[in-house]
Write a structure and sequence with these properties.
Layout lengths: L12 E2 L7 E2 L14 H26 L18 H7 L4 H25 L6 H22 L7 H26 L7
Antiparallel strand pairs: 1-2
Helix pairs in contact: 1-3, 3-5, 4-5
Organism: Streptomyces spinosisporus
InterPro entries: Teicoplanin_resist-assoc, VanZ-like
Pfam family, one: VanZ
Length: 185
């Protein structure tokens, strides 16, 4: 009569009668990631770059156009949360939602497009850092060069939160699909 021997799965304990259970030392085989063909990856990067340029134009139009009529109403905000409280204290909730939501939405394209356009800047912290730096530059330009605009640290925070949202919802997956990381041996 022959005994059938069962092979142990990696990480499972096996024991022979009368012996102590020993954990198997086999490592699980790494799952291979599906890599897109080069022409598809190139097309995805070109499209992402085109969207990034279009976004830069929209960003410049929205944030860097002079507003002489509101020159007397603008003030620099260096205290995080200060202008957020001012937005929320406004009687019309619609204005607060428009201001806060608009700033969050301005950051979303960065979180989606940066991992595709710049593969070395993939990763949550890198995307957030790059977004914060770009938005700080935009805010400095607003405060120093544009009539009727001012630097607001809350705008930078909201834009960066938008980039986080874009990265978590779509950017991470898109970056991984277009630029698969090479496995280290």
């Amino acid at each position: 009569m022959t005994k059938s021997r069962k092979t142990a799965k990696p990480g499972k304990k096996t024991a022979k009668p009368g012996k102590k259970a020993v954990r198997s030392r086999k490592k699980p085989v790494p799952r291979e990631r599906h890599v897109l063909a080069f022409p598809v990856r190139l097309l995805a990067m070109v499209c992402a770059f085109a969207f990034m340029v279009a976004f830069a134009v929209v960003l410049a139009r929205l944030t860097l156009e002079p507003s002489p009529a509101s020159a007397a109403l603008t003030h620099t905000n260096m205290h995080p949360g200060s202008s957020l409280r001012a937005y929320l204290d406004q009687p019309a909730l619609r204005d607060a939602v428009k201001q806060i939501g608009g700033n969050v939405l301005l950051g979303v394209p960065f979180g989606i497009l940066v991992p595709v356009v710049a593969p070395r800047s993939r990763g949550l912290l890198r995307v957030l850092l790059l977004t914060a730096v770009v938005m700080l530059l935009v805010e400095f330009a607003q405060g120093a060069l544009i009539t009727g605009r001012a630097f607001d640290i809350d705008d930078v925070i909201l834009n960066t939160a938008g980039a986080l949202l874009g990265y978590v919802l779509l950017g991470r997956r898109m970056g991984r699909a277009v630029h698969a990381r090479e496995r280290r041996a």
